[in-house]
């Protein structure tokens, strides 16, 4: 009898261990390493849309933005070509589509670098930060959060780069808890662009906080300049 | 009775293990996010530095004067070391990046040496130009590769993979231990990374604070009067929310309004946000995030709509300069023109929807804080004299444009603006109209969506 209970208990422990391991690995499965997915934009999406349109999979506008229409078209293409129909253009799908994955630059002569499109990475980083921090806010509130990040880059007490400000430890809760890795919402991408193009609804603020959830006492010593949605902005 | 003791003890032990395990799991995740954020940031900074290096190297091709050269060399030198530092901290196998690291440190050494040579005022020889071109090409390639990799890293999968391979525990502990020191270190490390901006915006935003503000001197208006201005400016709609803000310290004090556009119910669709200055009742800015589904008009027509709009609203003598197109809208930058001289500090931005030509964005904060009637004198240098100051390598196609550009120290410089090109890259070169000194070089970033400056 004793032996039996012992065996059962042992079994229970083993089962629960296996279970927790399974849970752990479940949470750790990364999102597929797709190069282009819903929400992507840029010249690569344009190439993709042109190809899909030429082959009759896609009938929407060629606007360089990976939206619902493109998603469906990619899925159609994937089904036809025996690929997993997940609507994400990864390495295998890109190869079938014939989209080059690497540009080859010549070494010898001067390469013009005007077409660097250098700003895309900044827009997407800022858009992700806005999504994490203010996706439920009115549009001005979203632009305002973007403007606060940019105002910080220009202020001597803060890092000088957008990435430096956003990833500064403890600066933004959405960064500390990983919400920044969510796919950026559409209005937040627009808000990031507007903020980068100079719109600043806060009039130069460097701080904002949600009075309902703010945990830092120090933040209450800031001077409130403006209230937008749930956030208070100040200096 | 006795037979229950063991199961109870075991159950308690099991529960405790479970709770402990869950806490461990949570803690591990927090460390992972923290570390991932650090890596992401370093990576963005690395990319930014390499992009700035590429731009500065190409600017060297068209720069002719010692002063500007030294500024460019020292910028490249700093950014090269900065990039190398960031690169070496990323969890990438050393063997994979030795060449890149070598390139970055050699680039730093080379430009430092070049800066020293520049002080003795020696012009660049063919060999140096050849070297700089090669370095530029490599930097361009590197920044493209970094951008490609970034697209994959955006979802955080790369760092996660690396971490798991190396055993996250050790690294995580290390990261926590190093936290305070590293913070300080990073702050010290940061140097200028340039971001492309629409012309004369952003980097000069301090100009707004300290500038002369005759347009904002005058009587304070009441909220009722401001409301009238809103309706007048937007041509209809219902005012939903009002807020008065006083910023003090030199910023513009405004009334903020949220307006529900015509034929829309409240709570549905997009509101229009608009700020009116408390003094004199100017419209400071408008934000309207409405969706634009179809494009019916061309960017050229959009500029016409924008110009007409400014004319109607009483902003005279505004000249469209640069445009950028995104999400179904065109953003047009206007500068104030006084006696054929462009006043770059006096900037107004207008956003036009490409479906029906409606104005969906407006920003006159720069204009309102800087615009005044300037005393324009005849330049001491002729256009021809100024042209001779430009590097022989740069191709100048058109006649220069007289303009006033803002400086970072709140001043204004009277300049000739030359459009120049070098082997496919285009630049704007500013030569001081009185002294003939080269004041600034901007590089044009042309894309299908419009033109940006860096």
Automatic annotation (TrEMBL), chain A:
Keyword field: Cell wall biogenesis/degradation, Germination, Hydrolase, Signal, Sporulation
Biological processes per GO annotation: cell wall organization; spore germination; sporulation resulting in formation of a cellular spore
GO terms, molecular function: hydrolase activity
Boundaries of every Peptidoglycan binding-like domain copy: 41-97
SUPFAM superfamilies per record: PGBD-like
Residues annotated as domain Cell wall hydrolase SleB: 136-233
Signal peptide (UniProt feature, chain positions): 1-22
Domain of life (superkingdom): Bacteria
InterPro entries reported for this sequence: Cell_wall_hydrolase_SleB, Peptidoglycan-bd-like, PGBD-like_sf, PGBDSf, SleB_dom1, Spore_cortex_SleB
Family to which this protein belongs: Belongs to the SleB family.
UniProt protein name: Spore cortex-lytic enzyme
UniProtKB/TrEMBL annotation, chain B:
GO biological process, any: spore germination
InterPro entries documented for this protein: PepSY, YpeB_N, YpeB_PepSY1-2
Limits of the PepSY domain: 382-441
Residues of the Sporulation protein YpeB PepSY1 and PepSY2 domain: 183-376
Pfam families found in the cross-reference section: PepSY (PF03413), YPEB_N (PF20769), YPEB_PepSY1-2 (PF14620)
Chain ranges of the Sporulation protein YpeB N-terminal domain: 27-158
Domain of life: Bacteria
Protein name from the UniProt record: Germination protein YpeB
The species this protein was found in: Marinisporobacter balticus
Lineage of the species this protein comes from: Bacteria, Bacillati, Bacillota, Clostridia, Peptostreptococcales
């Amino acid at each position: 009898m004793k032996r039996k209970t012992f065996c059962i208990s042992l079994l229970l422990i083993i089962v629960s261990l296996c279970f927790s391991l399974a849970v752990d690995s479940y949470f750790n499965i990364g999102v597929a390493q797709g190069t282009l997915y819903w929400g992507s934009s840029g010249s690569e999406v344009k190439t993709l849309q042109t190809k899909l349109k030429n082959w009759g999979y896609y009938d929407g506008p060629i606007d360089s933005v990976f939206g619902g229409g493109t998603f469906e078209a990619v899925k159609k293409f994937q089904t036809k070509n025996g690929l997993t129909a997940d609507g994400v253009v990864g390495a295998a799908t890109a190869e079938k589509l014939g989209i080059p994955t690497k540009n080859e630059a010549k070494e010898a002569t001067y390469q013009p670098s005007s077409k660097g499109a250098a700003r895309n990475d900044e827009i997407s980083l800022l858009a992700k930060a806005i999504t994490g921090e203010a996706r439920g806010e009115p549009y001005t509130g979203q632009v305002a959060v973007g403007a606060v990040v940019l105002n910080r880059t220009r202020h001597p007490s803060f890092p000088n780069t957008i990435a430096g400000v956003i990833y500064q430890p403890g600066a933004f809760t959405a960064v500390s808890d990983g919400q920044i890795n969510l796919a950026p919402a559409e209005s937040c991408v627009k808000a990031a662009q507007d903020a980068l193009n100079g719109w600043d609804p806060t009039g130069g603020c460097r701080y904002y906080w949600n009075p309902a959830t703010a945990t830092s006492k120090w933040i209450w010593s800031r001077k409130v300049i403006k209230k937008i949605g749930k956030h208070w902005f100040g200096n | 009775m006795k037979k229950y003791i063991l199961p109870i003890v075991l159950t308690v032990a099991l529960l405790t293990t479970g709770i402990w395990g869950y806490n461990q799991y949570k803690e591990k995740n927090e460390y992972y996010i923290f570390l991932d954020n650090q890596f992401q940031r370093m990576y963005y900074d690395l990319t930014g530095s390499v992009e700035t290096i590429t731009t500065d190297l190409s600017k060297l091709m068209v720069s002719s004067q010692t002063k500007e050269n030294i500024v460019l060399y020292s910028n490249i030198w700093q950014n090269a070391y900065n990039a190398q530092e960031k690169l070496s901290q990323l969890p990438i196998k050393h063997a994979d990046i030795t060449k890149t690291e070598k390139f970055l440190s050699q680039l730093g050494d080379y430009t430092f040496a070049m800066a020293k040579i520049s002080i003795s005022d020696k012009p660049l020889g063919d060999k140096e130009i050849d070297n700089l071109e090669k370095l530029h090409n490599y930097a361009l390639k590197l920044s493209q590769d970094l951008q490609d990799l970034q697209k994959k890293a955006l979802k955080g999968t790369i760092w996660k993979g690396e971490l798991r391979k190396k055993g996250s525990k050790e690294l995580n502990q290390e990261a926590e231990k190093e936290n305070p020191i590293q913070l300080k270190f990073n702050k010290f490390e940061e140097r200028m990374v340039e971001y492309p901006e629409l012309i004369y915006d952003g980097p000069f935003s301090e100009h707004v604070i300290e500038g002369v503000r005759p347009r904002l001197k005058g009587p304070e208006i009441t909220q009722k009067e401001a409301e009238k201005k809103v309706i007048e400016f937007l041509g209809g709609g219902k005012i939903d929310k009002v807020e008065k803000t006083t910023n003090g310290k030199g910023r513009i004090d405004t009334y903020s309004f949220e307006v529900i556009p015509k034929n829309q119910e409240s709570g549905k669709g997009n509101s229009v946000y608009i700020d009116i200055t408390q003094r004199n009742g100017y419209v400071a800015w408008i934000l309207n995030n409405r969706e634009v589904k179809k494009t019916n008009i061309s960017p050229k027509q959009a500029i016409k709509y924008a110009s007409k709009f400014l004319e109607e609203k009483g902003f005279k003598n505004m000249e469209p300069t640069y445009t950028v197109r995104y999400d179904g809208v065109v953003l047009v930058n206007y500068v104030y023109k006084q006696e054929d001289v462009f006043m770059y500090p006096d900037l107004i931005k207008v956003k036009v929807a490409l479906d029906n030509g409606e104005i969906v964005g407006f920003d006159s904060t720069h204009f309102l804080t800087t615009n005044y009637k300037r005393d324009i004198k005849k330049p001491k240098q002729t256009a021809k004299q100024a042209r001779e100051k430009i590097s022989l390598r740069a191709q100048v196609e058109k006649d220069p444009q007289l303009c006033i550009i803002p400086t970072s120290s709140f001043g204004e410089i009277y300049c000739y603006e030359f459009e120049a090109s070098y082997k496919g890259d285009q630049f704007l070169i500013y030569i001081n109209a009185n002294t003939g000194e080269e004041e600034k070089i901007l590089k044009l970033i042309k894309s299908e969506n419009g033109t940006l400056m860096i």
